[in-house]
Automatic annotation (TrEMBL):
Organism: Octadecabacter ascidiaceicola
Subcellular location: Cell envelope
Domain Imelysin-like: 33-295
GO cellular component, one term: cell envelope
Identification of the protein by name: Imelysin
Pfam families xref list: Peptidase_M75 (PF09375)
C-alpha cells in the first residue's frame, strides 16, 4: 500500500478531500477498468472452454462488488453481472428458458440468467454439461457481461468521477457526504462477506448450509472472501487517517491470515468443510474476525469521517 500513502502525501490541486481523489484514482477507476478488460477477454474467447477467462473476470468482479452505488446501480447493472444470492433458485430456471428456441435476447432476459454467476452454472454444473446450445449461450452471456462492465466503466469515467470528485452537486453536497458514500461501500462490503459469503454456508451449528456458498461449483467460495478482504483493505487504508492506518492494516491482516488458516484445510475451497465440526470452527473464527473488523471501523473510522450514529450500511439510504 506504499503507493497509496505516497499519493496521499503528494501535492494536489484538487479541491476535494484528497482521500476522494485517491479512492477514485487508485481503487475505483482501475478496478472497474480491470473488470472491463477481464470481461473483454472472456467475450473474445473462441471456444466455450473459458474457465480461466471466467475465473479472471470473477476475481475482478469480487474486487468491485462493494461499490454498489452510482453507475453499478443504473439499469440493474450490478445484478446483471452478479445475481447472487439466489434463494429461489431462479438462475437454472432462467438458463433453461434461454436455451429454448424462443428465448429472448440476453439483454432482455431476467438478470438471473445473465452475468458471471449464470455462466458458472454453464461452465461447472454437470446438469448443463451436454445441453444443446450451451456454447452459444456462454458466448452470448460473456458478450453481455462485457457490455455491462464497459457501460459501468464509461459511466464512471464520463460522469460519476466528476460527481464524486467535485462535490457541491445534487448527489453529494460536500466532501463529507462523498466520504460517507465510500465508507458505506466499505462497511457494506464487510457485512456482505460476513453475512452472505460466510454466514450463508455456515447456517447454524445444527444445520450447516454448504450448498449456499457463493460460487461453490467453481470452488471460489473461500477465494472470494480473500479477494474481497484484500480489496476492502485497500479502500479502508485510503479512508483511514494517518493515526488509524496501522490499526486498520493490523485488523485486516488478522482476518486475511484467518482466511489462510481456513485455506489450509483440505476441501475448504467451496466451504463444504462447515459440515465438519473441527473445521467449521476455523470458518466461524474467520467470520468473527470480519465482524470485529467491521465493529472497529464503525467505532473509530466512522466518526472520523462524520458518519452519524445509527448509520446502517445495509439500509440503502
Amino acid at each position: 500500500m506504499k503507493f497509496v500513502f505516497a499519493f496521499m502525501l503528494a501535492p494536489t490541486m484538487a479541491f476535494a478531500d484528497p482521500r476522494i481523489d485517491v479512492a477514485l484514482d487508485t481503487h475505483i477507476l482501475p478496478r472497474f477498468a480491470a473488470l472491463t478488460d477481464a470481461t473483454a477477454a472472456l467475450a473474445a474467447a473462441e471456444s466455450c472452454e473459458v474457465e480461466e477467462e471466467w475465473n479472471t473476470a470473477a476475481t475482478a468482479w469480487i474486487g468491485v462488488s462493494h461499490l454498489r452505488f452510482g453507475p453499478t446501480e443504473i439499469d440493474n447493472r450490478a445484478f446483471a453481472l452478479a445475481f447472487w444470492p439466489d434463494p429461489r433458485g431462479a438462475t437454472p430456471k432462467s438458463l433453461a428458458a434461454l436455451l429454448t428456441d424462443d428465448a429472448p435476447a440476453i439483454s432482455d432476459a431476467s438478470v438471473a440468467g445473465r452475468g458471471l454467476y449464470a455462466m458458472e452454472f454453464l461452465l461447472f454444473d454437470p446438469a448443463f454439461a451436454n445441453i444443446e446450445g450451451r456454447c452459444d449461450l456462454i458466448a452470448d452471456i460473456a458478450n453481455d457481461a462485457h457490455l455491462t462492465a464497459l457501460a459501468i466503466q464509461s459511466d464512471w469515467e464520463d460522469r460519476y468521477d466528476a460527481v464524486l470528485r467535485s462535490t457541491g452537486n445534487e448527489i453529494y453536497r460536500n466532501d463529507t457526504e462523498a466520504l460517507q458514500e465510500l465508507y458505506k461501500a466499505l462497511t457494506t462490503g464487510l457485512d456482505f462477506t460476513s453475512d452472505m459469503r460466510l454466514g450463508r454456508p455456515l447456517g447454524t451449528f445444527d444445520r450447516p448450509r454448504p450448498a449456499r456458498a457463493e460460487m461453490r461449483r467453481s470452488g471460489r467460495s473461500l477465494d472470494n472472501v480473500r479477494v474481497s478482504l484484500t480489496s476492502l483493505e485497500e479502500l479502508a487504508l485510503i479512508l483511514a487517517g494517518e493515526e488509524l492506518m496501522p490499526d486498520v492494516e493490523a485488523r485486516f491482516e488478522k482476518a486475511i491470515d484467518q482466511a489462510g488458516s481456513v485455506a489450509s484445510v483440505v476441501g475448504s475451497a467451496d466451504l463444504s468443510i462447515v459440515e465438519n465440526v473441527a473445521d467449521r470452527i476455523k470458518v466461524e473464527a474467520l467470520q468473527q474476525r470480519v465482524v470485529e473488523l467491521r465493529a472497529f471501523l464503525s467505532q473509530d473510522l466512522g466518526p472520523e469521517l462524520g458518519v452519524i450514529e445509527g448509520f446502517n450500511s445495509l439500509d440503502g439510504d
